[in-house]
Design goal:
Layout lengths: L14 H15 L18 E4 L6 H10 L4 E4 L7 H14 L2 E4 L7 H10 L6 E7 L6 H10 L10 H10 L7 E6 L5 E6 L5 E14 L4 E7 L6 E6 L5 E7 L2 H13 L5 H23 L9 H22 L1
Parallel strand pairs: 1-2, 2-3, 4-8
Antiparallel strand pairs: 4-9, 5-7, 6-7, 7-8, 9-10
Helix pairs in contact: 2-3, 3-9, 6-9, 7-8
Length: about 325
């Protein structure tokens, strides 16, 4: 379903290329390309929808997918612009008996699993999840990034790490005892976007959360930190004893092949490709067989993750002001 390139944007930038690709793909695989969910035929087998549009459109799209007879919905992060809207989507889906699973790919990442497993072997260990993007460190590049991702870093780039904290470290708004920004690492800027309007966001942020149930975990995110994400484990003395990268040496072979095939794509698409394949396969299998989609976040986790993001953003901004 592509409402823009198959509609008003057909003659604009990217439109002709998309339509040429769509025509070739339809002829080769029999894929239907439609401009609206309402154009879908009745499902002949269990139907799963992947919603990956503008965040603000997601509440409407979820309702349309339910009307179109979807059994399961795969919703890309963060799901909705606000907690209230995402909670409303959760309520609508539950009333219709439709399961909504989330595209938090790092929940099934190899580096996350290996880091958590290693941390369990180290007494009083501390885990830090590090997320990097490869934007140019210029006002123009970051200003464009801030405007395009106007919901803010913690609701966008770092939302994957927050989902890990909610999923595996007992982090909820009510269970946060303290959050402390690393002021030496962190940076917050106010920059004009392409529209000329100013946007304030983190270009780098690092913080540590302590929970009331005794857990402690850190997150670092850097818009201009490069293409690799990783996690570290430190021991009781604060010495790093483990580090695992995404991609690892095995996955770098795939990354190189994808870079050659899609030279104009953003670098993080390549490093995240294996994990998105895993999420999509597990959601698809779950839709057909009913087997548990192991490790895949639910919309309930997404609601709490968004609540945590909304709680942390003003708290951390105040600490850095």
């Amino acid at each position: 379903i592509e409402g823009w390139f198959l509609g008003p944007g057909a003659e604009g930038p990217g439109g002709p290329e998309f339509n040429e690709w769509a025509t070739e793909t339809a002829a080769k695989y029999g894929t239907n390309f439609l401009s609206s969910v309402s154009d879908l035929p009745d499902p002949a087998q269990p139907r799963v929808a992947l919603i990956s549009g503008r965040t603000a459109d997601n509440p409407r799209l979820l309702g349309e997918c339910i009307e179109a007879g979807c059994k399961c919905i795969y919703l890309e992060k963060p799901g909705a612009p606000t907690v209230e809207e995402l909670q409303g989507m959760k309520d609508v889906a539950e009333e219709a008996g439709i399961e909504v699973l989330m595209g938090y790919n790092k929940n099934v990442c190899k580096y996350v699993r290996k880091t958590r497993e290693f941390a369990e072997t180290v007494p009083d260990s501390h885990v830090t999840f590090v997320s990097n993007n490869a934007y140019e460190n210029t006002p123009e590049s970051l200003g464009e990034c801030f405007e395009r991702n106007a919901e803010g870093m913690l609701k966008n780039m770092a939302i994957h790490e927050l989902a890990l904290l909610v999923s595996f470290y007992d982090v909820t708004v009510e269970n946060i005892e303290s959050v402390t920004a690393d002021k030496e690492f962190s940076s917050m800027q106010t920059l004009p976007g392409p529209s000329g309007k100013d946007f304030t966001d983190f270009d780098r942020i690092k913080f540590t959360i302590k929970t009331k149930t005794g857990k402690e975990v850190s997150v670092a995110a850097d818009r201009c930190g490069g293409t690799d994400s990783y996690a570290t484990v430190t021991d009781a003395e604060g010495e790093e004893v483990f580090r695992y990268y995404m991609p690892d040496e095995e996955d770098k072979v795939l990354v190189k092949a994808l870079e050659e095939k899609y030279p104009t794509a953003m670098p993080y698409f390549f490093t995240q490709d294996p994990d998105y394949v895993t999420v999509k396969e597990r959601v698809s299998k779950h839709t057909v067989t009913g087997d548990e989609a192991e490790g895949v976040a639910t919309i309930a986790i997404a609601v709490e993750t968004l609540r945590v993001a909304e709680y942390l953003t003003p708290t951390l901004m105040e600490q850095l002001a």
